[in-house]
Design brief:
224 residues, alpha/beta, 2 domains, 4-stranded parallel beta sheet, two-stranded antiparallel ribbon, 11 helices, 13% strand, globular
Length: 224
């Protein structure tokens, strides 16, 4: 699908936008896939409040704008609103991979149903990250500990408790970003967080985070 080598990435906020811009865009450009991150629009502001009613407008706009591009979606499961396709069913699941599978499939099906004339079956790629993009930073405990200025053991304890980065959950006090703030008061999503992500790098994140790896693989394959 070389015709889809240009991809609009609809993101929920500035952190995701910078992550795509600074890390994912140069990484995938080497593979012939060119990303443009755009924050989901909302009258009067940008970022936050991730409702499907809001996202669908941007999805439609970018599917219609250029028929030779693909559109992908990068939103966090944590904080997503109840109107999202598959949300109610996903909340009944215990396993994070099953939650992600339900959300991504339901989102894809809904977009296909809403916009049947824009080849959305092939051009739209949903990705609901488990449970926040900050989970990816736990892919490299030594690097994360060094950047936060905390003992590596503290990072390892979180991973032992949860099992792997993408299992770090969506409770209001234990979501990945909340844990990072607890570990270090100097942690800021769009500055410290992106610096940590850059130090770790996409390859290490792909190794430790299968759901993230699946999404990046799908994007990579658009350049073939």
């Amino acid at each position: 699908m070389s015709s889809c080598a240009e991809v609009i990435v609809l993101v929920e906020g500035p952190t995701e936008q910078q992550f795509v811009k600074q890390l994912l865009t140069p990484y995938l450009a080497q593979r012939g896939v060119f990303l443009t991150p755009i924050i989901l629009d909302k009258p009067g502001e940008k970022g936050g409040d991730v409702k499907f009613a809001r996202a669908r407008n941007d999805i439609e706009k970018h599917l219609k704008q250029r028929l030779d591009t693909c559109v992908t979606l990068l939103v966090d499961y944590y904080g997503i609103r109840g109107d999202w396709p598959g949300y109610s069913e996903s909340k009944k699941q215990a396993e994070h991979t099953r939650k992600a599978q339900i959300m991504n499939k339901a989102t894809h099906e809904e977009v296909k149903k809403l916009f049947p004339n824009h080849n959305s079956d092939l051009r739209f790629i949903p990705y609901v990250s488990m449970y926040e993009i900050e989970a990816l930073y736990f892919s490299d405990p030594p690097c994360l500990a060094e950047k936060l200025g905390v003992p590596q053991r503290k990072i390892e304890e979180i991973l032992e408790e949860c099992g792997e980065p993408e299992k770090i959950n969506d409770h209001t006090t234990t979501a990945p970003s909340k844990r990072l703030v607890k570990l270090s008061g100097r942690f800021k999503k769009t500055s410290t967080g992106i610096a940590i992500a850059a130090a770790i790098g996409i390859p290490k994140m792909r190794e430790a985070c299968p759901l993230f790896n699946n999404w990046v693989t799908t994007l990579e394959n658009l350049g073939h």
